[in-house]
Amino acid sequence: MKHIGRKIYHLAGGIGLLSLYYVLGRDRALIFYAGFFLIVLMLDLIRLNVPPLNRFILTKFGSFIRANEEHKLTGTAPYVLGIGLSLYRLDSVLDGDLDEFIEALTAAANAERLKNL
Prior knowledge:
The chain is mostly helical. 78% of the residues lie in helices and 0% in strands. It has one domain (4-90). The chain contains 6 helices and no strands.
C-alpha cells in the first residue's frame, strides 16, 4: 500500500484530535485546535525558511511528507484547521441543522454554473 505512513498519520491524527474534542469539551478543544494550527503553521514556515532544518525534517520524516511539499507548506496545518472547523459546528450538524451548509454548497454550484456559461 502506497504511503502507508501518511495514512496511519492522518488516521491517528484525526482520531486524536476528535478524542480531544470529547475529553476537553468543545470550547477548550477549539482553543487547542487554534493554538495547534498556529504552532504547526509556524513550524512549517520556519522549515521552509531554514534550509538545513528542511533537509533534516525531510530526512527524518520523508515518509510523511510528499515530494512536492519539500519547498511548500505541508497539508498538516490545513488538516488541523479543517478538523477544528468541522467540529466547531458538530452539535448543530448532529441536530440536523444543515441549512447553512446547503446554502453555501448551492451558492458555490450556482457560481460554477455561471462561470461555465
